[in-house]
Amino acid sequence: MKKSLFLLMMALLPMAALAQSDDFGVWTSIGVDKKISKKVSVGVEAELRTRDELSTVDRWSFGVDAAYKFSKQLKLSAGYALLHDPNVERISYYDADDDLVLEQEVEVGDAKKRGEFAVTRHRFNVSLTGDVNLGGFNVSLRERWQYTYRPEVTVDERWDYYDEAWDGKTHSYRGKGKNVLRSRLKVEYKFKPIRLTPFVSAELFNAWDVQKVRYAVGTEWKINKQNALEVAYRYQNVRNDDTDFEPNRHILGIAYSYKF
After folding, report:
1. DSSP three-state, residue 117
2. How many other C-beta atoms can be found within 10 angstroms of the C-beta atom of residue 201?
3. Cα dihedral: 82, 182, 201, 219 (round 10)
4. Contact at 8 Å (CB) between 81 and 115?
5. Is residue 93 a contact partner of residue 110, using CB atoms and an 8 Å limit?
């Protein structure tokens, strides 16, 4: 137990070292879960995320999932989510073969053109979660395979940074699929008299290499048998994510859930 807590706290240390953030957003969600039997449950969830210091809607989503408990310590789940991103930007950059680089008008790596569009993505996932109770603490490890598909998108024009004007030309962004393995280690402790369950966690997003790490600390408040509220602080550190183009971000998470 002491070893698991030590490793998790070491993973969370970067949070304390980060004095500034690239961005700040709030993630809010509402979920409903229905227990079909002792081993089977289903659920739905709606979520809204903001970014750019709360000024922009990052995405909204609606998802469904189902879970099967093999035992108290092992659970299998699968789900689907429809993700809508209303404010997407894609920026291209000059490379060594561009004419303006050869003419020494711009340098390699300078911003070239920016496309703006809205897109709807489809996400599927399968998760296996194991947990163990140790001295009042619950330690869990979740391994999740996630596949996200973005259909092809065409924009009427893009902003040209060199001409400082819209180019008036249509441009298509090809459809793209992405596989990610998400590994999350979580430690929580239940204070039954006051119905609070504080937790800390660290999650790795791996697509051949670690693309981002998400750290979290928060608590769940079980209002009664059916209702619960979770409040958490998260820090998302992007390492090598060339698909979503996300910045590092501080996040306030607020989630309400109802079970019946």
Report:
1. strand
2. 21
3. 20
4. no
5. yes
Among the listed residues 203, 193, 188, 257, the one whose alpha carbon sits nearest the alpha carbon of residue 234: 203
Q: What is the pLDDT of residue 19?
A: 41
Which residue ranges in the chain fall short of pLDDT 50?
1-8, 11-12, 14-19, 21
Long-range contacts from 156-165, C-beta under 8 angstroms, 24+ separation: 158/113, 158/114, 158/115, 159/113, 159/114, 159/115, 159/116, 160/112, 160/113, 161/110, 161/111, 161/112, 161/113, 161/114, 162/100, 162/105, 162/106, 162/112
DSSP secondary structure string, 56-91? Answer: EEEEEEEEEEEEEEEETTEEEEEEEEEEEEEEEEEE
**Cα 46 to Cα 113: distance, rounded to the nearest angstrom:** 34
- What is the C-alpha to C-alpha distance for residues 33 and 88, in angstroms, rounded to an integer? 31
Tokens of 2: 């002491």
214 near 232, Cβ under 8 Å?
A: no
- Give residue for tokens 């699968």: 78
Residue 83's CB is within 10 A of a number of other CB atoms, namely: 18
* pLDDT tens-digit readout, 131-162: 999 988 999 999 999 999 999 999 999 999 99
